Amino acid sequence: MSPERDDRPDRSAGRERARRTDPEAPGRRRRPDRVGDLLPEAARQLGLEDELRLARAVVTWDALVAERVPAASGACRLVRLEPDAVVVAVDEPIVAAELRMRALELLGAFGSAPGGARVRLLRLVGASGAGSRG
User: Which fold has domain 51-133?
Assistant: First the structure.
């Protein structure tokens, strides 16, 4: 008697190939989401969209000041975003003067940077910059 031969096609090779190429295939872990991609939705669900937007704007402002006006880095802080303005607290009069001179450049860069916002005015608050405009 001859051994019985199974004429059914071997499907294990196809399953193995699918497992390697399909991220949703059983037995394969799906690629984890990046935390940065999850934050906006989580913030929206928690009602923290404005705080997240302000935090991103602060980081963006700090980076722009460090790059374009290094002498003012650490001596000014973005404290508020308004519909038409960025409100920045300054520590020293010389910092306020430097920011006023560079306002158009800074606002243009801030408007085109990720995390920034398009605004028309730079409002300085603090020891000497209260209520001034750029």
Answer: GMP Synthetase; Chain A, domain 3 (3.30.300)
